[in-house]
């Protein structure tokens, strides 16, 4: 699956800074999806038009993400959506520049306007379905570039171009997951559907990549059916896509 690419080691470099993030995204997609090519990004004219409409420049890291993979829907729009440049806008509170939304607009991700001039600002999120009193913007990840790494990993998993499965988790399954699989160096970050609970975590092993959603659900992606089968054997339970 990886052609000599060690996901753990490359991700450890990828989460350090923006340059590492873009390098990781290029390497990851070349080995797990398809290489990033000319034309996969948004044109500078689109970004400048968005900036003219907004009245300010996009953060450098957000610009870089659009220029790199803004048209790669398998990496940006398989499940949740990186907004097109002409869709990016300030939320109703006037506090946050929203650039990504959950597939039914239940959650939103964005950059605080107070930090929009920073080259790689923090990312916040909020749950639109929450009550008005609870619909506050909350910290998501420390940098836009890091949030883009998370986006690419997640959207790749849901792209339909890999073997995949998912299941509910319980304490026994979590213990087996932690014991049998390698924790990837993506920092903990909140699960938007349960922001006050356990964090999101990533693992790999047996030729598969695994995402644990707040201790509640597990998603698995692999390049081969054998990778998925190996994870099912290691984590016995009710896998929703197992027809055997």
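^ Assign residues to that structure.
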């Amino acid at each position: 699956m990886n052609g000599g690419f060690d996901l753990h080691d490359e991700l450890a470099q990828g989460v350090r800074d923006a340059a590492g993030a873009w390098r990781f995204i290029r390497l990851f997609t070349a080995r797990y999806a398809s290489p990033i090519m000319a034309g996969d990004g948004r044109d500078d004219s689109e970004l400048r038009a968005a900036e003219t409409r907004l009245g300010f420049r996009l953060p450098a890291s957000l610009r870089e993400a659009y220029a790199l993979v803004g048209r790669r829907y398998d990496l940006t729009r398989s499940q949740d959506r990186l907004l097109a440049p002409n869709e990016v806008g300030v939320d109703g509170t006037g506090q946050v520049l929203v650039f990504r939304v959950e597939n039914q607009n239940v959650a939103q991700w964005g950059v605080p306007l107070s930090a929009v001039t920073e080259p790689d600002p923090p990312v916040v999120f909020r749950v639109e379905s929450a009550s008005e009193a609870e619909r506050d913007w909350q910290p998501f990840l420390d940098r836009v570039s890091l949030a883009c790494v998370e986006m690419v990993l997640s959207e790749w998993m849901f792209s339909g171009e890999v073997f995949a499965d998912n299941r509910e988790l319980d304490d026994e399954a979590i213990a087996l997951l932690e014991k049998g699989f390698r924790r990837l160096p993506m920092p903990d970050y909140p699960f938007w559907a349960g922001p006050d609970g356990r964090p999101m975590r990533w693992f790999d092993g047996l030729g598969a990549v695994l995402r644990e959603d707040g201790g509640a659900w597990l998603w698995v992606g692999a390049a081969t059916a054998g990778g998925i089968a190996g994870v099912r054997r290691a984590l016995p339970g009710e896998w929703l896509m197992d027809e055997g």
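Residues 80 and 104 are 8 Å apart (CA to CA).
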